[in-house]
Write a structure and sequence with these properties.
Length: 399
């Protein structure tokens, strides 16, 4: 039989490669700017670097450059003061002091004195700071019932022992500095633990305010609105190690304080301490006096300089032989006048008590702050009372 032919598969027809697309016509060069003409990378200034180290944490220390607004103006040049060995001793001492908490503080062997000192500060704040805060232009704009008003600067904030006092004063803004970084962290933690309804805007910075201007620790915007009150409690005497430090301290107090603003403080009574020194017998083995609660030791009877008049101070459960310096009041008042500060008030602690312990606003506070109990009895013994009364309280006004 005849077999039909088997069809063969057709070989594929070869395809030509596609033609390349036509080249686009070149566009005219018309770039568009995405950032303002002045937005260039500039190195951080020393002041800004100090701020980023102290305010925003160690991670920002690696920053070398950032965009800076063309409107930024560097701060006025202020002379820096060389830090001394005593400055390091003071800083190390307060960094080493533990924040023991409320319960532990209540069993302090000098709890009566602590409570009394807190009452003195409350009287000082209520009597002089409250009126300045009431007239402040700084307010939160809320209703009258919840209005917070006033801006406070605290130099030497320590561990934040006065935060409750400022909360009760219903301030709007609080900026605090201290030389001891650990104390600053503990103060920030204490503010953080306040009930939310009791909190105010707060900024905490570690800085030696007797050696550097505040602008080294905080950005200018935070200082643009002036303060109504500056507070320095149990710390201003450290500035009188030298004339340069005293001037630096007063510049930091007044540069950012509004006219009519109040400067509050508590300092050792230089006149009383020198009287005690003079009463010591000529053949005394050492120039030290005190009691079971405190002691003060001078290095010599003479000379008696206006700055750097050094002594060593010990206070049970508080201060361990830290170097301190006398503040001669009349000289301090004359120096403060150069910075437009005039004295309004200056009294020893026992005189403050005598003046206000029967006052209708402050008599109930004695019991509320546990200075006395419901029977009028106190935990302060004679030694604590003597230790408390080596201090004076003062208030000044900027004119």
């Amino acid at each position: 039989m005849h077999r039909p032919p088997v069809p063969r598969a057709r070989s594929p027809t070869p395809q030509r490669p596609p033609s390349p697309p036509p080249k686009p016509k070149p566009l005219p060069y018309k770039p568009r700017r995405r950032t303002p003409a002045g937005a260039v990378l500039e190195p951080l200034t020393p002041e800004e670097m100090r701020f980023y180290r102290t305010q925003l944490g160690t991670g920002t220390r690696r920053l070398a450059k950032r965009k800076r607004s063309p409107s930024y103006e560097p701060p006025d040049n202020q002379p820096l003061v060389k830090k001394s060995r005593d400055t390091g001793l003071v800083m190390d001492h307060y960094n080493a002091r533990p924040d023991v908490g409320i319960d532990q503080r209540r069993v302090s062997p000098i709890i009566g004195m602590r409570n009394f000192n807190n009452w003195i500060k409350s009287v000082l704040i209520t009597r002089f700071a409250h009126p300045a805060l009431a007239s402040s232009a700084v307010a939160d704009g809320g209703g009258s019932r919840n209005l917070r008003r006033g801006k406070v600067l605290e130099l030497g904030c320590g561990k934040g022992g006065d935060l409750n006092k400022w909360s009760k004063a219903r301030i709007k803004e609080y900026i605090a500095f201290d030389i001891a970084a650990l104390s600053v962290d503990q103060a920030r933690g204490r503010w953080d633990s306040l009930p939310r309804a009791s909190r105010f805007d707060a900024t905490f910075t570690a800085l030696d305010c007797y050696s550097e201007p505040l602008i080294h620790g905080i950005l200018p915007a935070r200082l643009a609105e002036p303060f109504d009150v500056v507070s320095m409690q149990f710390c201003m005497h450290y500035a009188f190690e030298s004339e340069a430090k005293a001037h630096c301290m007063l510049r930091n107090v007044t540069q950012w304080l509004r006219p009519g603003g109040i400067f509050l403080g508590t300092i050792p009574n230089a006149e009383q301490l020198l009287t005690r020194l003079d009463q010591m017998p000529a053949d005394a083995p050492g120039l030290s006096f005190g009691n079971s609660v405190y002691s003060i030791k001078f290095e010599s009877r003479e000379p008696r300089p206006l700055y750097g008049h050094r002594y060593s101070f010990f206070l049970q459960d508080a201060v361990e032989d830290v170097p301190e310096y006398l503040v001669h009041w009349e000289h301090f008042a004359q120096l403060a006048d150069k910075y437009k500060l005039r004295p309004l008030y200056k009294k020893e602690f026992h005189d403050v008590f005598q003046e206000f312990h029967e006052h209708p606003d402050f008599r109930p506070l004695l019991q509320k702050m546990k200075v006395v109990d419901e029977n009028g009895e106190t935990e302060m013994n004679d030694d604590q009372w003597e230790a408390a009364n080596i201090y004076v309280a003062f208030a000044m006004e900027k004119y």
